[in-house]
Design a protein that fits this description.
With 188 residues, the protein is of the alpha+beta class. 29% of the residues lie in helices and 20% in strands.
């Protein structure tokens, strides 16, 4: 009845990973880690479109980015971000968050650099050369070489909350115990 439906329930999922995936926003354990911890909790700029019929190839759709375009050099990609998005901790998702996340993964001099996450991101998306904020809801990302499928690769780069990282004392181990993304589920 209604009382049963209003009771907090748990969703238990079996997975074929060797261990529980890391919860800092860049899960280990390959695609299985992304499927069970990455996408439900964190979201990427470009997402998988799983609404296709089973007999058709999986496509891509806007995620945290609503649209994107590449310039005439085929190296600079511009992403327009979805407005009014909040991380689980209440902080705002915006271009600064994207820049912070790319620095966390691709800039070993940044204060938020995460070694393990960087290794995973660089293995999945090695084409990233640089990135910058254009305005509050726009980022530009350059690739090392023209990469026509670059937006699809970004489905492997979920966004973690810079605000939560600050809140837990700029410590990735503490963040892993209290992660914050923008996805439909939270880890408690």
């Amino acid at each position: 009845g209604v009382a049963q439906a209003q009771r907090q329930q748990h969703l238990r999922i079996a997975m074929t990973a060797s261990d529980i995936p890391t919860t800092t926003g860049m899960p280990n354990n390959g695609a299985e880690g992304m499927r069970f911890v990455g996408y439900p909790v964190f979201e990427p700029l470009v997402d998988w479109d799983l609404l296709n019929p089973a007999d058709k190839r999986v496509g891509f759709r806007p995620g945290l980015a609503t649209e994107w375009a590449v310039d005439e050099t085929r190296l600079k990609w511009t992403f327009k971000l979805r407005p009014d998005v909040k991380f689980h901790d209440g902080s705002t998702f915006n271009a600064d968050s994207v820049v912070w996340n790319f620095s966390r993964l691709y800039d070993d001099k940044s204060p938020q650099f995460e070694v393990a996450a960087s290794g995973i991101a660089r293995a999945r998306v090695p084409q990233v050369a640089r990135w910058e904020k254009v305005d509050d809801l726009t980022v530009a990302i350059w690739t090392k070489l023209p990469t026509s499928f670059f937006p699809q690769l970004l489905a492997w780069i979920p966004m973690a909350s810079p605000g939560q990282y600050e809140k837990v004392g700029k410590d990735w181990a503490a963040f892993a115990r209290q992660p914050a993304g923008t996805g439909p589920f939270r880890i408690t």
